[in-house]
Every structure is written in C-alpha cells, then in structure tokens.
Design brief:
Number of strands of chain B: 6
Strand order of the largest sheet of chain B: 5-1-2-3-4-6
Helix content of chain B: 10-25%
Structural class of chain B: alpha+beta
Largest interface: A-B, 32 and 34 residues
Largest sheet of chain B: 6 strands, mixed
Strand content of chain B: 35-45%
Strand content of chain A: 25-35%
CATH topology of chain B: SH3 type barrels
Number of helices of chain A: 3
Radius of gyration of chain B: 19 Å
Number of domains of chain B: 1
Shape of chain B: globular
Shape of chain A: elongated
Number of helices of chain B: 1
Largest sheet of chain A: 5 strands, antiparallel
CATH class of chain B: Mainly Beta
Distance between the termini of chain B: 25 Å
Oligomer: heterodimer
Number of strands of chain A: 5
Order of helices and strands of chain B: EEEEEEH
Order of helices and strands of chain A: HHEEEEEH
Chain lengths: 128, 133
C-alpha cells in the first residue's frame, strides 16, 4: 500500500518536470514574435506591400501592428492586376496576422545588421 | 489588442461599415458591432457580395458572427467612394448564374490541368490544410 503511494508520487513528480520542460521549450518558438512585433513597430509610417496567402497583394502605409502581427494599413491600393474589384471603396484595412505570407519592405528602411544582432541576442537569451 | 497606444486595434472600427474578406473567398459587407482578441466579429445588416467580372450582386444576410480564424481582411468602406462606376449591380439570380458558370469553367480548367500533369507522370500533392481562399 505504501509502495503504491510512493510510486504514484514519483509519477506525479516526473510528469510535472516533463510538462515544465515542454512548456519551457514551447515558449521559445514564440520568442521571436516579440522581436518582430518590435521590428514592425519601428516601421510604422512606412510604405509596405503585404502579400496574403490568397495571393492578394496590398500596398499601403503601415499604420499599426499588434502582438499577433495583425497589420493595419492606411491608404491602400491593390498592387497587381485589379482582379479584386471589391477593394475599390476601401481605403484602410486590418489584416489578420495569420493570413500574411510576405511583407515587402523598402530595403533602405531596414537596418539588417541591427536586426541580425537583435535576433542573435534573442537566441542567446533563449538558450540560457 | 486594445488599450495600448500604437497597436493595431479594431476598437475604432466599431459601428462603421466594413468589408470582410473570408478565407473561403466570400465577401461580406456589414456594420461592425463587436470584436475580441481573436478577431471574431459581429456584423450587423450584413450583405454578401458576389463578384463576377465587372458585375456584382448583393444577398442580404442579417446578423453574422464570424470566427476570427476565417477572417482574411477587414476594410472600412468609404461611403463616399462606393463607386458604382466601374462595377455594375445586377439581380441576385443573375449573379448566382454567372457565379455558377464561372465555377464550372474553373473546374473544367482544373480537371484539364490535372489530366495534363498526370500524363507527364507527375502529381500535385493535395493541400492538407483547411485553407480554401
């Protein structure tokens, strides 16, 4: 009876540690989300082209971004052939982060060295 | 998503007419009444707009609750710019007919493409995701 109790305790502790480790590793997948959120915040006001997963490309000025990398664009225009006529009367839009494929940025607005250093720093922090 | 300056928020868009693009390709136009952190939306006096070529047709739908994961984009409709110049509004039956014809044509071309690919001994892997777009 006592032995059974000890086994149970052992299993509980084991599971607890296992879940803790899993949780620790899972967090690190999202650590770069904070980095890119900060990165996009620094690009507010710049002109970008957002390509969505449904192949729609929208050109506009980056108004704001949030932690899910949802993007708000102002003064939008559909770049490629306007086979999407329903967007004609829309000037501002909110794009859900999960449907973005690419965000095309002007090359001179991005300090790639800074970005590289920041990413490296994040990766180092996560390792510890 | 809200109450933080400079973050993308839908709070200011409430009670304004919006155009919502859904993942399955549908377009809904309605007054945004409610939001949450997942971009779930409540639309009032919603109209489903079907576009075929230069024509479009509206189907009144009432109140819509849209799950956030199906939203592609949400755009504020500028009431002054609701241009009917380029686009021509037609009746519901007509636009549904046009849509059916378009879908059929698309299916035909897809079938032919698949056939051509098969003949060459290749295969297009089936997209396992739920995305339709």
């Amino acid at each position: 009876m006592l032995l059974l109790y000890i086994y149970k305790l052992y299993i509980y502790i084991y599971i607890y540690i296992y879940i803790y480790i899993l949780y620790y590793y899972n967090i690190n997948i999202y650590i770069f989300l904070q980095l890119f959120y900060s990165f996009f915040k620094s690009l507010v006001g710049k002109d970008v082209v957002v390509e969505l997963k449904n192949d729609l490309s929208i050109c506009g000025t980056l108004h704001s971004v949030d932690q899910y990398l949802n993007i708000k664009l102002t003064d939008i225009s559909v770049t490629d052939p306007e086979k999407y006529p329903h967007m004609l009367s829309v000037k501002n839009c909110f794009i859900r982060g999960s449907v973005v494929r690419y965000v095309q940025l002007p090359a001179d607005e991005v300090d790639t060295q800074l970005l590289q250093d920041a990413a490296r720093k994040e990766a180092m922090q996560q390792k510890q | 998503m809200n109450y933080m300056p400079g973050t993308a928020s839908l709070i200011e868009d409430i009670d304004k007419k919006h155009l919502v693009l859904l993942r399955d390709g549908r377009t809904l136009i309605g007054i945004l009444r409610s939001i949450d952190q997942f971009a779930n939306l409540v639309l009032h006096q919603t109209v489903e707009r079907i576009h075929v070529g230069k024509k479009f047709g509206d189907i009144p739908r009432g109140i819509f609750v849209v799950r956030g994961e199906n939203v592609v984009l949400l755009g504020e409709v500028d009431l002054d710019k609701e241009c009917d110049q380029i686009l021509q509004r037609v009746s519901i039956e007509e636009i549904l007919e046009e849509q059916r014809v378009e879908q059929q044509a698309k299916q035909e071309s897809e079938k032919r493409k698949l056939q051509a690919v098969k003949e060459r001994g290749l295969s297009i892997p089936k997209a396992d995701t739920l995305d339709d777009f």
